Amino acid sequence: MLVLLAGIFVVHIATVVMLFVSTIANVWMVGSSSFGTASSGLWLLCNQTCEQLSVSGSNEASLKAVQAFMILSIIFSVIALVMFIVQLFTLEKGKRFYITGAIMLVCWMCILIGVSIYTARFTGKVPESTTSHHGYCFILAWICFCFSFIIGILYLVLRKK
Question: Is residue 93 pLDDT above 80, yes or no?
Fold first, then answer.
């Protein structure tokens, strides 16, 4: 049981780190053009230098929603990690980690909403590029989506023995 708890804890920390990286770094979409490689994220558009990401009026609300949901997912993931540690030492044997699992599933839902909005609105849209593809931050966000769901379910069914 100790190995299972340690494994879940390590995957949870990895998920938090990957959420930080995917939200902060600006490589959600990568495009190539005559000027070189350009990448855009949630905050900046980078070619040789980085500048504020400019979006059209209709997509501005979508970008703000993606930013908000990714930040919320980080917050909920960190809260779930703290709650796991607190419940690990305060729960009696045989109790379940319901609160931790519920918070982690809220994190999972925030990631789902944020990445889905980004996929629907911004896929393939890197300014001044001819071809574009998803960057590592986009892929990390989907990996975090999977990990947070698995961790949330494991917390709900896990018993402290």
Answer: no
**Two tokens at 88?**
């690990």
CA distances (Å), origin 10, targets 1, 7, 156, 159: 14, 5, 17, 18
Which residue, 30, 41, 59, is CA-closest to 117? 59
Q: What is the pTM of this model?
A: 0.88
Radius of gyration of the chain measured on its C-alpha atoms: 18
The DSSP secondary-structure symbol of 131 reads E
Please list, in sequence order, all residues whose beta carbon lies within 8 angstroms of the beta carbon of residue 145, skipping any fewer than 6 positions away: 108, 111, 112, 115
Is pLDDT above 80 for 61?
yes
| pLDDT, tens digit, 9 for 90 and up, residues 39-52 | 888 888 888 777 77
**Contact of 128 with 33, CB cutoff 8 Å:** yes
Among 137, 131, 128, 127, CA closest to 67: 137
**Phi then psi for 20, rounded to 5 degrees?**
-60, -50
